[in-house]
Amino acid sequence: MAIVTKDIDHVRIRRALISVSDKSNLVKLGKFLISKNVKILSTGGTATTLRKGGVDIEDVSSYTGFPEMMNGRVKTLHPRIHGGLLAVRGNESHEKDMKDNGILEIDLVVVNLYPFEKTVATGADFNTCIENIDIGGPSMLRSAAKNHRSVAVVTSVDQYPQLMEEMKENGCTSLSMRRTLASSAFSLTAQYEVAISDWFKSQ
């Protein structure tokens, strides 16, 4: 059954989830978001870097009620994360599910992926390459990009200035920017999967 949706031009960013392998300019972005009254969820090393930089965050594990587990393989694969990304704003059924399950809207995802191709290029052994296959990251990118009507998805440090410029005046993102970012996210995840597939074929 089709879900009726409508395009919303400007969406205020109230809650962001940040989980990155590239920590460049991370604290700068975090401080900017805090200045715009954005609440930040984060994981692992990203959370540590933000806290050390003086950025107030909430651990994803605190929000979900589940610890990071299995040596970091499972961090963000949880209904309270993906429900917050995929819920259609204004859909009564979705909003009821969110209320019943303590799910909060997530308006911005900032994720860059484990450096799989760089790991392979170093000549790393099979098991090391396997551990550098990102699962949670692509899942969040795809969820956010699918729901780009309401969620902005940032995949690269190079996109931080664009995001901050967009949010500078009123803390909002435009539909046109969210669509552009969604396209970039789907391109990235597609390329990532091809790189993994090609590597497996070579083994």
TrEMBL record:
- Lineage, top-rank taxon, reads Eukaryota
What is the name of this protein? Bifunctional purine biosynthesis protein ATIC
* Keyword Amino-acid biosynthesis among record annotations: no
Pfam families annotated for this entry? AICARFT_IMPCHas, MGS
Quaternary state and interactors: Homodimer. Associates with internalized INSR complexes on Golgi/endosomal membranes. Interacts with INSR; ATIC together with PRKAA2/AMPK2 and HACD3/PTPLAD1 is proposed to be part of a signaling network regulating INSR autophosphorylation and endocytosis.
Q: Which GO terms describe its biological process?
A: 'de novo' IMP biosynthetic process
GO annotation, cellular component aspect: cytosol
> Which species is the source of this protein?
Hirondellea gigas
**Statement: the UniProt record of this protein carries the keyword Nucleotidyltransferase:** no
Q: Where is the MGS-like domain?
A: 6-155
Catalytic activity reported: 10-formyldihydrofolate + 5-amino-1-(5-phospho-beta-D-ribosyl)imidazole-4-carboxamide = 5-formamido-1-(5-phospho-D-ribosyl)imidazole-4-carboxamide + 7,8-dihydrofolate; (6R)-10-formyltetrahydrofolate + 5-amino-1-(5-phospho-beta-D-ribosyl)imidazole-4-carboxamide = 5-formamido-1-(5-phospho-D-ribosyl)imidazole-4-carboxamide + (6S)-5,6,7,8-tetrahydrofolate; IMP + H2O = 5-formamido-1-(5-phospho-D-ribosyl)imidazole-4-carboxamide
Q: What are the alphabetically sorted keywords of the record?
A: Hydrolase, Multifunctional enzyme, Purine biosynthesis, Transferase
For molecular function, the Gene Ontology terms on record are: IMP cyclohydrolase activity; phosphoribosylaminoimidazolecarboxamide formyltransferase activity
